[in-house]
Amino acid sequence: MVKMSDVAKLANVSTATVSRVLRFPETVKEETRLKVLKAIDDLEYQPNILARQLRRNETNTILVVVPNIMNTVFLGIIEGIEAEASKNNYKVLLGNTNNEVDNEYGLIDLLKQKQTDGMILFSARMERKRLLELCENHPVVLTMDYIDGLKIPSVSIDNISSSRKAVQHLISLGHTRIAHISGPFKYASSKDRYKGYEQAMLHNDLKIDSMLVQEGLFTFESGYNQMLKLLAMEHPPTAIFAANDEMAMGVIKAAKERGLNVPNDLAVVGFDNISFSSIFDPALTTIAQPVYKMGELSMRLLLDQIRGNSQMKSQYILESDLVIRESCGGRETS
Amino acid sequence: MVKMSDVAKLANVSTATVSRVLRFPETVKEETRLKVLKAIDDLEYQPNILARQLRRNETNTILVVVPNIMNTVFLGIIEGIEAEASKNNYKVLLGNTNNEVDNEYGLIDLLKQKQTDGMILFSARMERKRLLELCENHPVVLTMDYIDGLKIPSVSIDNISSSRKAVQHLISLGHTRIAHISGPFKYASSKDRYKGYEQAMLHNDLKIDSMLVQEGLFTFESGYNQMLKLLAMEHPPTAIFAANDEMAMGVIKAAKERGLNVPNDLAVVGFDNISFSSIFDPALTTIAQPVYKMGELSMRLLLDQIRGNSQMKSQYILESDLVIRESCGGRETS
DNA sequence: CTGAAAGCGCTAACAG
DNA sequence: CTGTTAGCGCTTTCAG
Omega of the bond prior to A263 within 30 degrees of 0, cis? Predict the structure, then answer.
């Protein structure tokens, strides 16, 4: 391992000068600089970043905590984070909690031990108190999720108005018996998506039949099963708003099996715009979150905090889009 | 920032003792140990891992270099890597090359600068010479891919025999005009999958019609487009072996649009068993790679190298499975 | 513009 | 079983 002192010796300068050439080249006389650069080259010197980090007390690394890697929505965000991070010379550590709160706690130690300069969380299942304390002492941003009342920098969409938009679309197409297959209500986003459904219905003077609201698990199978339940009703719904695309696909599968044609006999809207929603047959009408942008922005907010120019801890809400494809039939008429 | 010396002072011992309590508790008298632990607790001391890393010259971090994060096959492997890594107290850094060789080179510096203890590569597009040199000086394993002739530790499946198995299945179902939509031939895996197709055909005395082999791009659209070409032939094929699932889905979409029924009028086999292939209608018959296991094994091989007990640099080839679903019709009869 | 020197916080011989 | 001590390799004052 060739080290800085070797370079210094070869170039007949002090290590301080070598260090300067590396970090502030303009402060070194050209002649000396060239000498040093030549020595670096000759020796194929690579600085030991660990030592630098210890000295400077920063790692240029951030931690991304995901509940589940295999989710393409999360992945889109990670892609954005990674892009913005490497643009700023930051590396990203990946932490998978597998939906276990305990793993969240374990990952937090990386921050406390100064192994990363900051952290981006995809969901905050841990105790509020601990989270708050964490945010006060370290750069943290929450993405995809947000916590009411707490002023934690976060980036998300407005799940309520997005869902409202989705349901409103169904209503505009003339549907009145609209069912909702929600996500598990323990997630804030599931509650919000339900609220949006509710608001759109009430706003159009449609009453909400509690039979028409079924709690799913965000999985294909749960969408399929809940749809079967709905189809068994005396007056089944003519349209479904599913809280994510996987469940929407399950819904469509169940409908197809019962001989129903989507969209002619049943209209379906999903949520997330996962990559397969355009490939699925029929292609899914769904709400698209600006995932890449959310990732970039999250990283930028984090950098702001790390660099200390955090104008103020802020919460961003980005626009979502209703992507109209085939699963609801004719375009909006209103 | 409370440091080790603070703990030492409070507990009335030397820093050496504190260090021992942390790393080799059994070598410290219980009484002293408890005193130290209490001090650690009282001060909420968190060791500065950076300093430890510098001193021990190891990071407990490995780097995973992926060509493209948004690929669920890669993701399955990453999941396995991550699981095995965290079981061994290793962290994983994520590097996305976006399919740019230059980014590969950039990421390699992390290894050279001792920022990670080892590296798992998903594809090796860089120059052979550089790769070889890298492997000689650092722990590296190649996964999903392998390089003929070079003895680089790697974990992969046998693409040739897997494809042979897929095509043999179609032949067993009575098909003789079988087309292949390959991946870009610049990838070794594409070539191998083609070879498997060729071998199965020749083995069954079926001649290969070069018109029946079309090079795709591993994308849904390319599968769709190449299928349209095939359908325009005077004697179109009755079965398709696509080099990945996305293309297989494109194939099916094109077939459906032309009024063909899959599997009745056309049998299709894919490759990869991405999660969506079971949801797709018709559910895809495809080759499944043991991705999670590949990830685990890759990580284990890497750890072996890092820890120096690398019995020998070895290349592992895991078994793949033909998953029979709906897209080929009736079960194998042979 | 450059060099000397003092650490960053921890670990690991080596003594005792 | 515990303390002393000498660094890991780099950065950064402070002088010159």
Answer: yes
In a domain, B333, yes or no: no
The pLDDT tens digits for A178-225 are: 999 999 998 889 999 999 999 999 999 999 999 999 999 999 999 999
Residue B276 forms contact with A (CB below 8 Å)? yes
Kindly report the backbone phi and psi dihedral angles of residue A65, in degrees, each rounded to the nearest multiple of 5, phi listed first: -105, 110
Q: Which residues of A touch B86 (CB under 8 A)?
A: 96
Which B residues, 225 through 244, put their C-beta within 8 Å of a C-beta on chain A? none
We report the CATH number of the domain holding residue A67 as 3.40.50.2300
In a domain, B334, yes or no: no
The count of domains in chain A is 3
Task: For an interface test with B, give the residue of A66, A94, A113, A137 to mutate (most B CBs within 10 A).
Answer: A94
**Same domain for A227 and A255?**
yes
| Cβ-based contacts of A59 with chain B (< 8 Å) | 50
Q: Are residues A163 and A262 in the same domain?
A: yes
Q: Which helix (H) or strand (E) holds B182?
A: strand B178-182
Distance from the Cα of A65 to chain B's closest Cα (Å) equals 12
Answer yes or no: do B96 and A82 touch at CB < 8 A.
yes
Q: Does one domain contain both B93 and B42? A: no
Q: Does A112 touch chain B (CB under 8 A)?
A: yes
* A102 in the same domain as A171: no
Q: What is the CATH number of the domain that holds B37?
A: 1.10.260.40
Task: State the residue range of the domain holding A195.
Answer: 159-289+322-328
Residues 33-72 of A with CB under 8 A from B: 46-51, 53-54, 57, 59, 61, 69-70, 72
Please tell me whether residues A305 and A280 are part of one structural domain. Answer: no
What region does A206 belong to: left with phi over 0, alpha with psi -120 to 50, or beta? beta
Its pTM stands at 0.89
| Residue B55 falls inside a structural domain | no
User: Who among A78, A249, A253 is closest to B69 (CB)?
Assistant: A78
pLDDT tens-place string over residues A91-121: 999 999 988 888 888 889 888 888 899 999 9
Compute the distance between CA of residue B54 and CA of residue B137 in angstroms, rounded to an integer: 19
Two tokens, residue B175:
């098909």
**CA A330 – CA B207 distance, rounded (Å):** 48
| Claim to verify: residue B184 and residue B278 sit in the same structural domain | yes
* Residue A334: inside a domain: no
Q: Which bases of strand C sit closer than 7 A to a protein CB?
A: 1-5, 7-13
Task: List, in sequence order, every beta strand (DSSP E) within chain A.
Answer: 61-66, 91-96, 118-121, 140-143, 154-157, 178-182, 213-215, 239-242, 267-272, 285-288, 315-318, 321-323
